[in-house]
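Explain this record to help learners:
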Amino acid sequence: MEGGKLIIFSAPSGSGKTTIVRYLLNQPELNLAFSVSATSRPRRGKEVNGEHYYFMTVSEFKKHIKNEDFLEWEEVYRDNFYGTLKTEVERLWAQGKNVIFDIDVVGGLRIKNKYPEETLAVFVKPPSVDELKIRLKKRSTESDNKINMRIAKASVELATAPQFDKIIKNYDLDTALKEAHQLVADFVGVSVGSKED
């Protein structure tokens, strides 16, 4: 596999990484395309196959694992698999794009380890675990039990932050967006805003 750059955004659920990734995808000079992950979890709400995720059954997912079709994969919760198909990255690279990932910390670090030179791995840090809990409850998409599972996982994920290339503290969204934009622009070699070349 060879092509453009790989830009990873990882964070505990509710840190704001998805908002940051969406913002960056709307900056044309960065030439980014979103890597759609595969998952065995059921669809939520209005999710569309191939746009939000590639939805698979557990057995389909396991078959892809066996065939080594994934760049990285993980069983996040029991029978809840997530992964990045090699074909997805190859497809976007073939379009001449830099690939951006909104991915959990384990997957993010696996890709970074496989492609250290081509990858920028960014960890998005929430103000606090308490703030995370508030954000997750506001979403109203999951049960309290599921939220508590995510919070427990967040503490473990926060400990991995030093293994990433950069840490963005998302205490103020506008500041975090600007910082992310600058980081990615520097990494892909374009200038942003009124900054001197």
